């Protein structure tokens, strides 16, 4: 398992980039999966992982780690980075819409079949979640998909634990009503059992 997060974070505060590398190795996959599940884009998810850990390095002297795991805070940073990116993209799209030119076609030459398949699966999951509010979607992804406790999700999203519980319950009800097999009843039932134990 290696050194605890608290020790590694303390080393980061002392300007030890190797400690950040160890935290990256420990949590980059979880942050990537979270970002991919929210954006539906492999490339955006990779970029957001970089932004998240760059932000972590920038805050190394200011943030005091109050829990055993740095992951909830990293997921909160990733959530904010996604919101900022979405806002910037909207502004950029609005600007482009005012210009008299054809839309730029994305270059698909570097995409692999594996990435396209993964993105398609994520799109299908996201389509099933269109009835959810942003808060419900964030809470559900953190708790049901990524295995965060209600407390960790509350810290990542900077809301009360009761808010997380109600958002997760509303999200599950909406998904079961709209598309009972999209995420799979078993995944939602397993999540409920894990929350109660």
Summarize the structure.
73% of the residues lie in helices and 0% in strands.
Give structural attributes.
197 residues; 9 helices
General description of the model:
The chain has 197 residues and is mostly helical. Helix content is 73%, strand content 0%. It is built from nine helices and no strands. It has helices at residues 5-13, 17-39, 42-58, 71-98, 113-128, 134-145, 150-157, 161-178, 185-196. Helix 2 (17-39) runs antiparallel to helix 3 (42-58). The two termini are 25 Å apart.
Radius of gyration computed on alpha carbons: 18 Å
User: Portion of residues in helices?
Assistant: over 70%
Query: What's the number of extended β-strand segments?
Result: 0
State the separation between the terminal residues, measured CA to CA.
25 Å
What's the shape? globular
Ranges where pLDDT stays below 50 over 5 or more residues in a row are 181-186
Query: Strand portion, in percent?
Result: under 5%
Largest sheet: none
Total helical segments: 9
Order of helices and strands: HHHHHHHHH
| SS class | mainly alpha
Mean pLDDT: 79
Tell me the layout of helices and strands.
Blueprint: H1 5-13, H2 17-39, H3 42-58, H4 71-98, H5 113-128, H6 134-145, H7 150-157, H8 161-178, H9 185-196
Helix pairs in contact: 1-2, 2-3, 2-4, 2-5, 3-4, 4-7, 6-7, 6-8, 7-8
